[in-house]
Amino acid sequence: MKQRDLLYEGKAKSVYRTEKKGRLIVRFRHDITAFDGGKKDVLQDKGSYNARVSAFFFKYLEKHGVKTHFVSMLDDRTMVVRELTMIPLEVIVRNVAAGSIVRNYPFKEGTKLDPPVIVIDYKDDSRHDPMLNDDIITALKLCTQGELKKVKAVALKVNDLLAGLLAEQDITLVDFKMEFGRQGKTIYLGDEISMDSMRLWDKKTGESLDKDVYRFDKGDVMATYNRVAKRIIE
Ligand code: ATP
Ligand code: TYD
Fold it and tell me: Does ligand 2 lie within 6 Å of residue 179's CB atom?
């Protein structure tokens, strides 16, 4: 697969066209950002940890019947994916109250959310990703009602699969974000599922094993990513 022109440079990944129609290359960079880009750093090897964990999850999900954009890895931080027309939604599933749901609503951090809570934000940095509801999503024509129903069902299935897989490693999947896209009428899970887009807590110690270590200066970010990637992949 040959890399062609740069299609999009986001906060943490660069997306390139390839010589093959319908295939893109996603390079996971070592950049890390938080608080709407207000905090930024470059951390050696971060991209590889996130790319490898994402690839591992995508393969696991495909094996269990979830359609993802994953095709293959070119090297340890470069993924070949199916080109999607992205739906501008940040689909977040929450199993335990933490982060913005605790800041914005009277939930106590650590409260179990059963059934899981789905929160959908509008992926629009200029508007600071405001929360949506079903009516706003359909009124803005971000996707059809049928697609929204499908997205929510797949999000809950992914949550069940990943929460179960992580529990085997004594890790609680507190919450995580997904992005979906379409090719024709088919909806695929896209983007990444990694330590940058999940909140993971050690079941025994409660320790954060994700980007919260970076957000809140809780310790050595790369040592944490290295340890958690090993726990998940090996
Ligand atoms: P954020 O960090 O809020 O997710 P970003 O746009 O800065 O936003 P990056 O991860 O750096 O995010 O950039 C990757 C971009 O590629 C995102 O806009 C994402 O929606 C898009 N993308 C992911 N998977 C695909 C795909 N299969 N086809 C087309 N675009 C994709
Ligand atoms: P959330 O608690 O809403 O935001 P914050 O991280 O600011 O407290 O985030 C819920 C989960 O979704 C968390 O694991 C991080 C992930 N997420 C992203 O990866 N990107 C995003 O743009 C958002 C809003 C959340």
Answer: no
pLDDT tier for residue 234 given thresholds of 50, 70 and 90:
confident
Location of structure tokens 């994916």? 81
Q: pLDDT tens across 73-100, in order?
A: 999 999 999 999 999 999 999 999 999 9
What are phi and psi for residue 159, nearest 5 degrees? -60, -45
Question: What mean pLDDT is reported for the chain?
Answer: 97
What is the CA(15)–ligand 1 centre distance, in A?
A: 8
User: Is CATH 3.30.70.1670 the classification given to domain 87-220?
Assistant: no
CATH 3.30.200.20 matches 3-82: yes
Ligand closest in space to the Cα of 15? 1
- Is the backbone of residue 22 left (phi > 0), alpha (psi -120 to 50) or beta? left
Using most ligand atoms within 8 A of CB, pick from 6, 7, 11 the residue to mutate for ligand 1. 11
How crowded is residue 161: how many other Cβ atoms within 10 Å of its Cβ?
18
